[in-house]
Write a structure and sequence with these properties.
The protein is α+β, with helices and mostly antiparallel strands. It has one domain. It has seven helices and eight strands. Strands 1, 2, 3, 4, 5, 6, 7 and 8 form an eight-stranded mixed beta sheet that branches. A hairpin with a 2-residue loop joins strand 1 and strand 2.
Length: 230
Amino acid sequence: MKNLLILCIVVCLAAFSVAADDGENESKAVDRIQAAADVLNEIQGTPDNGIPSEVLGSAECVAVVPSLLKAGFIVGAHYGRGVASCRTPKGWSAPAFFTVEGGSFGLQIGGQAVDLVMLIMNQNGMKNLLSSQFKLGADASVAAGPVGRHAAADTDWKMRAEVLSYSRARGIFAGLELNGAVIKQDKDSTREFYGRMVPFRTSLIGEIDPPAGANAFLTTLARWAQDAAK
């Protein structure tokens, strides 16, 4: 019964997202890239409540989901579309589009939209991301990321975490537990943005040059990563 409730909620959220994105074209994909850049700028613009510089400076890849949809009544679910980029010898890679979806049990009533940020912290996490589909907590370990100017000394993010996750809702930014969520390539948005199918790996390891429409997100990433390295 619980599994059926999760399926129903995820299907409803997915249907809502599809309806909202009906007729999505390159312009819509660019809008998502701009929204992802805005999320990073707003979060890092308040360093006392943002991602610690040493954490962002150590990330192999950064993935942002503007307005992840959450809903629930006893059973919670979430669904969203995002964009990711990874470090390459030439700078930040061309963007890869993905979806995130999953369910979790707990006393949750009501619904809201949150901004989601995921940092892939090491090569094993990056390997999972490049596979174009993986499950957080199963294929890759995930933990709530530390918040503030500097990561607390007692955190184990350097040693163990493959993915650090954060959420922002109603102006509150905090680490987020995201076990069970499934990340997979958003093939429709990929085709719409690039005009053809581009595998996750091809874009994220720098085998193609980023289109001009990716500049907002990549410039923002470069700026904050450079600041974090100082």
